[in-house]
Design brief:
heterodimer; A: alpha/beta; Glutathione S-transferase Yfyf (Class Pi), Chain A, domain 2; 4-stranded parallel sheet; B: mainly alpha; Fumarate Reductase Iron-sulfur Protein, Chain B, domain 2; 9 helices; binds iron/sulfur cluster
Chain lengths: 268, 130
């Protein structure tokens, strides 16, 4: 059993329990134990790019330190947590002034620790599947291949961008989610809006704007023949579903669980 | 002595880490921006207006709240200018002014429903208030 540190994030604790539950179950089947870090705090949902913004990034730094102390990579499932934590890690690695100021804040925490300078490797669950488990191994473990299902991978923006920081996949022509879809026996549908934004948090302040963006995504997927869209982001799912997608939108972990036989069917 | 205009320009450039002089005004950032229609000033105009020091006009515009931080403009700019970061810096200047929060905790209840994920609320609070 390979052990990795795990940051579930607050949305996974409330509105996106299926994302969390199946992430853990599937990891176990694949020989990976997700060890939840203790006392994690919400990452805040968005990375603030200003380099004079420190305080809002400290919860991510604390999570990174917790993983460093276990000498394990830090795995997230939610695209948003992943983006915030990976960008924070990049900044603390590359921006000396930010690193010094963040460590100064953290030196006031109860526990005394060495200054942190970006040692932890941050991985999205997809990267865990591709780089640690391997899609071939997943194929072997599939007991219920989703043969014939035409599935649209929805990357959105946060998994891929900024490309030089996320280093997740080619930001303009990604393949990791399509490889995942093939590994579970289904057929990926490539469509132009797969890496365009659904509107994200603007759903709160300008729902019409989010509707336009979300509809562009689901119409694009549907018109290219998809019967189902898959995402790693609770906010993408909310926006696409809330704005009237004609095709169901599910978390990738639900499909993985179905293929691995740890879930009966998707409520799709 | 720097006047207010110069100070703001210096702050936005420093805090964003963006050098507007790298921009060749090709407009590719605005062409790819999913919020183009909602914006009064578009990403390439943000870059140019910051270069000109015309930041207060941008701070007063709703455009700063229409950016989705999707980073499409950053990824697709041929000159590595990173317009989204300059928009963020202008937005933060606007909401950091006392009493100028674009959204506060009191505004949240009427905006949410039972399905909206936590993450949307967290993100919006971080983007629209100080
Ligand atoms: S992105 Fe989300 S789910 Fe993840 S911790 Fe942060 S706010 Fe919560
Ligand atoms: S919720 Fe929308 S804003 Fe977020 S990653 Fe998904 S696509 Fe981007
Ligand atoms: S894409 Fe880059 S170079 Fe072109 S206008 Fe926008 S910021 Fe300037
Ligand atoms: S980050 Fe903002 S300005 Fe840039 S493309 Fe996205 S919405 Fe447009």
């Amino acid at each position: 059993m390979i052990k990795v540190s795990y940051f579930p994030g607050c949305t996974l604790r409330t509105k996106a329990k299926q994302l969390d539950l199946y992430a853990r179950k599937c990891a176990e089947v694949l020989g990976v134990q997700l060890c939840e870090i203790e006392d994690w705090q919400c990452c805040g949902g968005v990375f603030v790019s200003n380099n004079d913004e420190i305080a809002s990034k400290l919860s991510s730094v604390r999570a990174l330190i917790a993983a460093k102390e276990e000498d394990r990579p830090l795995v997230t499932v939610c695209s948003a947590c992943h983006n915030v934590i990976k960008q924070t890690n990049y900044q603390i690695t590359n921006d000396e002034s930010f690193r010094n100021r963040a460590n100064l804040y953290l030196s006031q925490d109860k526990e005394k620790r060495e200054p942190y300078s970006g040692e932890t490797k941050v991985m999205h669950y997809f990267e865990l599947l591709r780089d640690v488990v391997g899609f071939d191994k997943i194929k072997e473990k599939v007991v219920n291949p989703l043969t014939g299902r035409k599935i649209a991978a929805y990357y959105g923006c946060l998994l891929l961008r900024p490309g030089k920081v996320m280093a997740f996949d080619d930001p303009e022509n990604p393949a990791i989610m399509e490889e995942f879809i093939r590994a579970i026996g289904a057929e990926p549908v490539i469509y132009p809006y797969r890496n365009e934004c659904c509107g994200g948090y603007v759903a709160l302040e300008d729902p019409e704007s989010a509707k336009k963006k979300s509809n562009a995504v689901t119409n694009s997927a549907e018109s290219h023949g998809a019967e189902l869209a898959v995402t790693a982001c609770p906010l993408c799912k909310y926006n696409l579903v809330q704005n009237g997608s004609n095709i169901p939108v599910v978390y990738f972990t639900e499909l993985l669980a179905e293929a691995l036989g740890v879930k009966e069917d998707t409520n799709a | 002595m720097l006047d207010k205009k110069e100070l703001l320009k210096e702050q936005v450039i420093r805090a964003s880490g963006v050098n507007p002089l790298k921009c060749m005004r090709c407009g590719k950032c605005s062409g790819t921006c999913p919020s183009y229609d909602e914006m009064e000033y578009h990403p390439h105009q943000f870059v140019y207006m910051v270069e000109m020091g015309d930041i207060e006009t941008l701070m007063k515009s709703e455009s700063v709240y229409k950016c989705l931080s999707c980073f499409a403009c950053v990824e697709r700019c041929p000159r590595g200018v990173e317009p989204a970061k300059i928009i963020e810096a202008v937005r933060l200047e606007a909401i950091r002014q006392k009493g100028n929060n674009h959204m506060t905790a009191n505004d949240i209840p009427e905006k949410v429903n039972d399905d909206i994920p936590q993450q949307a609320i967290m993100s919006a609070m971080r983007k629209y208030s100080k």
